[in-house]
Write a structure and sequence with these properties.
Layout (H helix, E strand, L loop, with lengths): L6 E4 L7 E5 L9 E6 L6 H7 L6 H4 L4 E6 L9 H7 L2 E3 L2 H7 L7 E6 L2 H5 L8 E2 L6 H9 L2 E8 L6 E2 L7 H13 L6 E2 L12 E5 L13 H22 L12 E2 L1
Length: 258
């Protein structure tokens, strides 16, 4: 899929700690589902780019209003609930997404960190592992509402924090997976600068890819879901390969889909 020349915007300080890159134009009369990758610790790129104007989303994509989907459990916390609702964060349950996407006049964007909580446990500097093969709920949602799919990749997310070693099968990983099943939240053991929760000073480059047109199908078949999922994976992989060397990823590093 061909894209236009990227358009970039940086934060006002001029220091490229955050950068939003537009690889194609998005028609504000359409509704979109952004698949955000990777789902890492605190999902910094999604919050900074789509919940604030730090990187100039409204200037790059005029006429579009973003809504980042967040686990429902966070909306049960007093005070914090009020804050996140002012930041265009909405519950990731299907009812919330289904309410936003059918907007007749278009201009609605929902952003979903596709990998889910378990992908957080794969957040290691120098790796790009994505939980994607079995993630098809967002594909079905886009088909049901005819929302164009847009792959988004945020380079640098893996390097913001260090995690305690937790390879598959290790007791730490088994405990984390068990708690994730119970609490619906991945309890990653991580640290940043000075062994605190301050992220390392690494730039985040978030590339918004070209839209994949989706024909509305209120009751999509499994074959339709599988075909669109295959196309989405192809477009996401192409987006990563086209931009990786611009943002410090070695030429011999590729996406690992699990």
């Amino acid at each position: 899929m061909k894209t236009t020349n990227p358009v970039k915007t940086t934060i006002p300080t001029g220091h490229p700690l955050a950068l939003l890159v537009k690889a194609a134009e998005l028609d504000p009369s359409q509704n979109y589902l952004f698949g955000f990758h990777p789902h890492r610790v605190l999902v910094v790129g999604a919050f900074g780019n789509f919940c604030t104007e730090a990187t100039g989303f409204s200037r790059l994509f005029p006429g579009l209003k973003p809504h980042v989907l967040m686990l429902p459990c966070w909306f049960q916390m007093p005070l914090f609930q009020g804050y996140i609702m002012t930041r265009n964060l909405v519950s990731s349950d299907k009812a919330s997404a289904s309410y936003l996407l059918p907007h007749a006049e278009g201009g609605r964007v929902i952003i979903l960190a596709v990998g889910g909580p378990l992908e957080v446990l794969e957040a290691k500097p120098g790796t790009v592992s994505l939980q994607l093969w079995n993630q098809k709920g967002f594909i079905k949602l886009s088909l049901e509402h005819g929302a164009s799919l847009v792959p988004v990749f945020s380079f640098g997310e893996n390097d913001l924090f260090q995690q305690f070693p937790n390879p598959p099968g290790f007791w730490v990983r088994r405990v984390q997976e068990a708690l994730q099943t119970l609490l619906s939240v991945a309890l990653a053991l991580f640290h940043g600068r000075l062994d605190l929760l301050i992220p390392f000073r690494v730039p985040i480059h978030t590339v918004v890819g070209a839209p994949i047109p989706v024909q509305r199908s209120p009751r999509p078949s499994q074959e339709q879901v599988d075909q669109l999922h295959e196309l989405y994976v192809e477009c996401l992989t192409q987006l990563f390969e086209e931009h990786k060397m611009c943002y410090g990823v070695p030429a011999d590093q590729h996406l690992v889909l699990i």
